[in-house]
Every structure is written in structure tokens, then in C-alpha cells.
From TrEMBL:
Gene transcribed to yield this protein: pheA
Enzyme class of the recorded protein, top EC level: lyase
Organism: Oceanobacillus profundus
Domain ACT: 200-277
Source organism, top-level taxon: Bacteria
Single GO BP term: L-phenylalanine biosynthetic process
GO cellular component, one term: cytoplasm
Span of domain Prephenate dehydratase: 3-182
Signal peptide (UniProt feature, chain positions): none
Protein name: Prephenate dehydratase
EC number: 4.2.1.51
Keyword Cell wall biogenesis/degradation: no
């Protein structure tokens, strides 16, 4: 049976995405994103699911940097899920908000609830954890008046109550998750894909005026729709960057080879990171 790894422990949004997309497949949690990616690379698991980008907080940089600089795995699918953050406490907690001394969660989750925390819990300390699931686990094991920010799955898994629901600052909060595997045929997501997307990595030969304009022009005159453009440091020195570009169409044998040839003629290095279906999930 196919084994799927995810950023754990149980109760994380990644686990929620995996459960929604894959159903009853065997699942294994990992404490960090690199551990999950490494497990796919060395064959310990078949498929890995890791967070890529949140609509409010932006790119999960450790995911991008690890896939670019450490382990190159093909992206074979993307899962998009709505994010609903709740304030979770032990079921025996019957105090007021002002009684809560600490709020635990992943740094992205805390940032997504900044206004709620600022207005309602200015006295409470924020404590970062490796995931929202880990934060819920910590709260479940403590007797002190502390809380976690997490989802309904975390509340159920760790026996917590939702003290305040939907405390995220913006309602249209979604996260993109990448599905990574060396064998595309193993991925069986029983949902209808929203669209097809292709991701490219483009390295510049040097920092020269007009370089980004030339790159974008190669897509523009071919009428290829770009949904994301992001620059990341090459880690070879200050001012050295590469671009990650998402194109909302599947790879073909005409437009993409044309773009690749045009950019390589400019001295750019072009790598196809993956062409894959995108699934929008309702949870």
C-alpha cells in the first residue's frame, strides 16, 4: 500500500489536506519539512505532502529552499485547502480570555491571527512551535492556562475545546500544499482538478538591467498566464537571485520549449520543476 508522509504530528493542516485528498492510505508524520522531503528522496515513503504558500503569510521558504538547494523532487500535484484557525484550550478550562498566559502555534498561524491576539490577548506571550498540531499537543499536556491556535482536527485529536472559532484576521485564507513523489502513477486523488499548472526555476547569468523584463516578455507575447513570480537568493552572494515562476497551463511541446530556448539564448538556466493538476478542497 502507498505510504504518504506529511508535516506532523497529527492535527496539522497538512494532515487535514492529506486526509481530504487521499482518504485511507497509510500515513506517516514528520517533525519537519526537510525530514518529510528526505524520506521521499531516500525511499522511506512513497509520497510527501508539504506546505508551499499561505494566502496571508506568503511562501513557506524552507519548502522552496530545500527543494531547490538540497533535494530536487518532481511536483506532481497541488492541493489547496481553506485555513480556519481556532483558539484551542483544554476541556477543563472555564476561565476568561484574560486568564490565558501563553498562546502556542506555528509562526505562520500566529501571524495569521495577529489582530485577534493584539486586541484580545495583548497580555499573553506567544510561543512558536514546529506545527499547529504540536501546539495542540503541548496544550493538552499542560495544566497551566495556555492555549493553542489550530484547526478542528487538532482539537479532536488532542481532546481540546474550541474556545474561540475563526480567529484568523482575513476570511479568504488558503494554503497551497505540494505533492512530491518519484512515481507519478502512485498519486490517486479522487477529486476533480481545478486547473493544470507548470512551475519553472529560472537562473540569471548575472545581475543586469532589464533581465526580469526580458524573462517576462518571453511569456507575455506567447499569452501565457503567470500566477506567481518569486525571487529567492541563490546563496552564492549578495544580490544573486533566481526566479520561480508558475504558469497556469500544462507543459506542452510548443510554447514551453520556445520559452526555454529564448531564455537560454539570453544566458538563463531554465529547469521545469513540475507540471501538475491543482485540486481545491472543501474541508
Amino acid at each position: 500500500m502507498t505510504e504518504i508522509g506529511y508535516l506532523g504530528p497529527k492535527g496539522t493542516f497538512t494532515k487535514l489536506a492529506v486526509d481530504t485528498a487521499f482518504g485511507d492510505e497509510v500515513k506517516q508524520s514528520f517533525q519537519t519539512i526537510p525530514e518529510c522531503i528526505d524520506a521521499v528522496d531516500n525511499g522511506a515513503i512513497d509520497i510527501g505532502v508539504v506546505p508551499l504558500e499561505n494566502a496571508i503569510e506568503g511562501t513557506v521558504q524552507i519548502t522552496v529552499d530545500y527543494l531547490i538547494h538540497q533535494v530536487r523532487l518532481p511536483v506532481v500535484a497541488e492541493i489547496v485547502v481553506p485555513i480556519q484557525q481556532h483558539l484551542l484550550v483544554r476541556k477543563d478550562f472555564n476561565g476568561k480570555l484574560s486568564d490565558i498566559q501563553e498562546v502556542h502555534s506555528h509562526s505562520h498561524a500566529i501571524a495569521q491571527c495577529h489582530q485577534f491576539l493584539h486586541q484580545n490577548l495583548p497580555h499573553a506571550s506567544t510561543v512558536f512551535s514546529t506545527s499547529t498540531g504540536k501546539a495542540a499537543e503541548i496544550v493538552s499536556e499542560q495544566n497551566e492556562p495556555i492555549a493553542a491556535i489550530g484547526n478542528k482536527l487538532a482539537a479532536s485529536e488532542y481532546g481540546l475545546q474550541i474556545y474561540k472559532a475563526n480567529i484568523h484576521d482575513y476570511p479568504n485564507n488558503h494554503t497551497r500544499f505540494l505533492v512530491l513523489t518519484k512515481d507519478r502513477d502512485l498519486v490517486q486523488i479522487k477529486h476533480e482538478a481545478h486547473l493544470e499548472r507548470t512551475s519553472l526555476l529560472i537562473g540569471l547569468p548575472s545581475d543586469k538591467p532589464g533581465a526580469l523584463h526580458q524573462i517576462l516578455s518571453a511569456f507575455s507575447w506567447r499569452k501565457m498566464n503567470l500566477s506567481k513570480i518569486e525571487s529567492r537568493p541563490t546563496k552564492t552572494g549578495l544580490g544573486n537571485y533566481f526566479f520561480i515562476i508558475d504558469v497556469d497551463q500544462p507543459y506542452d511541446n510548443v510554447l514551453f520549449p520556445g520559452v526555454k530556448a529564448e531564455l537560454e539564448a539570453l544566458g538563463c538556466e531554465v529547469t521545469i520543476l513540475g507540471t501538475y493538476p491543482v485540486y481545491h478542497m472543501n474541508i
